[in-house]
Design brief:
Number of helices: 11
Structural class: alpha/beta
CATH topology of the largest domain: Rossmann fold
Radius of gyration: 25 Å
CATH architecture of the largest domain: 3-Layer(aba) Sandwich
CATH class of the largest domain: Alpha Beta
Helix content: 25-40%
Strand order of the largest sheet: 5-4-3-6-7-8-9-10
Strand content: 5-15%
Distance between the termini: 65 Å
Number of strands: 17
CATH superfamily of the largest domain: NAD(P)-binding Rossmann-like Domain
Length: about 450
Amino acid sequence: MTHAVYAVSENGRAAQPQDSPAQLAVLPERGTLRSVAIVGLGYVGLPTALGLHDSSLTVFGIDVSGHRLAAIRAGTVDLVAADQERLGDALTDTDFHLTDDAADVAMADAVIICVPTPLDRHLTPHLRPLSSACRAVVEHARPGQTIILTSTSFAGTARELLAEPLEKRGFTIGTDIYVAFSPERIDPGVPNHTQHATPRVVGGVSAECTARATEVLQRLTSSVHPVSSPEAAEMTKLYENTFRAVTLALANEFAEICGTMSLDPIEVTLAAATKPYGFLASFPGPGVGGHCIPCDPHYLLWQLRRLRRNAPITETAMASIAARPKHVVDRAGEVLSDAARGLRGSRVLVVGVSYKPGVQDLRESSALEILVELKRRGAEVSYHDPLIPHITLPDGSRLSSEPQPHGRDWDLAVMHTLHPGFDYQWVKACPRVLDGTYRFEAVPHRAVV
């Protein structure tokens, strides 16, 4: 196979006819991948960078946050044990580079974009971080690179923010540069769900783009599933997390139904899960948090509104999820009312505020909304979380974790998140316990949400 030859000017733009022949660059063949740049070193980007470094690639980790880079260099970031060990090894290796300079994108054979895609207060996609990252990648892109977007967004994002701007720079997608979308599938805090064991979906702008992106992704996982386009891959991720949102909303609804009939929803769910087909167990809880499930379906709903289409099942599920924290507070009031007390003036402790066990992640955690609503109704609120020493609530107030709580000091303990490896036996001394996890059976007198 012969190499195609293209020109690259000093600033990295695609060659124009007037460029000097001395600036010609030889495009790499497949199988010559040696380096990769990761743009965004958050809960997705950092494990991705470590996984690729573990596969003997030179890695350029790029993040605009100096604070995040300092935390990575200090090893004070939230990682599973295996990735924490990988980080220690990587930090001593000259082939692992950390920088805030986006120009280092040009140093890599492949670029993977892993920046957050949050919502604004109107539940509208907040694309500024993603747009900024894609602009930087386009600006510094060079011929021969494979560029993979992993950040969850609406269908058409990779084409709009990467492929079209690259074409305006003079590139030909699929010939002298390669663009694809492959949704991240990181499960924070769950060591069994490794990147290597988790299949990846990928869709390129062309067949060659898909093939080039697959070559990169095979360094992370043993299974890559190609689809026909970036849009198909983008819609795959939206379907995955919308499915989870719907099943979690249904699990919470069934928990309330079971409570009405004095049945244990966990027992019912486990029994239903014995069916070997047609059922996927989802368990009720105090709310749905994290970056994905409370946010991603809104990217789909936002795009559908622009197309003047409805998705009533998804809309209902997201409304149910949004209402869950208020329902928890309503139940807290009922538990106190049964003891001839009210929320106003009662001392309420929320136990665990991260969005899931074993992580130091507060994003979209229902605990924050629960604390604010408890305050609004007059309760004296505190929290205990051994992994999160301080929090700022949505209303701007700050709280510090109770370091050594005693159950008898509280009128009500609301069990929100139980981290593995910590002792919660002290909760037994609390006169009233509302179990949002549905699994804290150590307290016989608990009520469930």
